[in-house]
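Hi team,

Filling in the usual template for the complex we talked about on Friday. All components are listed, including any nucleic acid strands or ligand strings, so the model treats them as one assembly.

SUBMITTER: L.P.
PURPOSE: interface mapping
COMPONENTS: two
RESIDUES: 573
SEQUENCES:
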Amino acid sequence: MNQYTDGLVVVLKRDCPTCTLLEPVYGELAGSGAPLLVISQDDPTFPESIVGVVDDVDLERSYRLDIETVPTLIRMEGGNEVARRIGWHRDEWRELTGLESLGEGLPDYRPGCGSMSVEPGVSEILAVRFGDTKIAARRISVAPLEDEIEACFERGWSDGLPVVPPTEVRVVRMLSGTTREPDEVIGSMPPNLVPCTVEKVAINAVMAGCKPEYLPVVLAAVEAALIPAFCMHGLLCTTHFAGPMVIVNGPMAKAVGMNSGGNALGQGNRANATIGRALQLIIRNVGGGVPGGIDRATLGNPGKYTYCFAEDESDPHWAPLAVERGMADGASAVTLYAAEGLLGNFDQLSRTPESLTRSLALSLRAVGHPKKANAHDALIVLSPEHFRIYREAGWSKAQTLEAFDEALRLPGCELVRGAGGVAEGIPEHLVTETVSKFRAGGLNIVRAGGIAGLMSGIVGGWGASGERGSELVTKEIGT
Amino acid sequence: MRDNVVLLDPTAESTPAKRERVVPPSSLGGLTIGLLDIGKARGNVFLDQLEAGMVARGLNVRRYAKPTNTKVAPVAVAQAIATECDIVVEALSD
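RESULT (copied from the run log):
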């Protein structure tokens, strides 16, 4: 089928007022003697003036002809389309058909209606049924009596929570969220160093519950995870608590509805929840990083299900994290951080930046271990009410970080092994030194949270922070 | 009845699509063997014989039973077998 002889093709549907208005036109076309094929999307008894209307209820012809609007008039020559007119424009139809009095008495112009083949959700189904989706993944057939969500569990594809079954239609829909080709290789996914394609990212994004518009963010997060400085392989293998945290900056965060406000690090926002989860599923399913296998975490942390939020960029007084890290102002980007769980700092009384810095520094001393230094990085998730104290005092972000550096220079005598009756600590030879809690660049600040609450979050980093392990990495979000 | 649902493999496809069977043990020594009576006539006779033979060989045997052959095993029975046994022999009959 779908071989067309020379002549005219009209694609229409009864449900379209323009199509029904043109009933006399179809009769004129048929009466002209020119070869005519009329294709009806919803009712092969329409138009009644035409004998042998082609039934296209399954929309295969409409899909293959790439019909977006009905009526559409096409001229075929030598089996190929040579001209097309969309909707009803009398002069255009007369010009294409060569019939100078066609549609006399009818309105000059009517736009027509949307083709049933491009209704929401339909085009992907037709692409799977009739087209080439370019998807190469192995097809796995699940028997009628088998629950497909249970099937995903049984095949080991889940992080422990139900996943959305990755049907081809859903994956095609997901791929519509990116301009990139399904077979493009993003990189080698650890730990098995398997080539990870856009298609595999899309499949796992479906399973995580992402919407198609999240896919560019997920792709950027995967690309960031594969930057060698992030050391995803080591982060996965470690016995430490840490896993990848995804921080999203720029207009894309708002565009996809991410939460940077109240409960930003908690549950309840689909984009936050599923983008972070997609990255973890990709590591698990494509890379083969499975807890108890290569993932040797002693305890892990709840963020290894998903750990993703947007920065609150509503106050321009401080540059967003991504801009601070070299992205252009206005660009969208993800920053990945090797993060363990959250420690709250509940300071209700500090009203000066000096006091608040010293207060937060007390919590920061506990990162990794209160007697360790220059090992773990840290991230402060600064709430709006705490941020206001710095802003109202006119402190810049750089000035604030300098103050933290000063507040976190610690006397070695308190930290050395054995001090305070605790065996853990820094080497004894540092007993007379002053040591910095964090390496240069090892402390970062990002803003998020609800407008009420004099409290901020401290997120400790991996025990192997910095060049010997993981560093923050930032990747611009593409399309 | 609906048709099969076709899913796209999210993995690196380095393992077979069909789940692999557990490799049988090379020896039964030291393992706990579950004998499951599915509740159909004379299945118990077969299992009694099997149990006697296994016990005579010094093997560890535990008996389990489904209330009825018409339904899948209750969760408690399945969990008991999974947590207490290394292998299971299911006695079909007819």
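MY TAKE: The first helix of chain A runs from residue 17 to 21. The CA atoms of residues 245 and 317 of chain A lie 25 Å apart.

Thanks, L.
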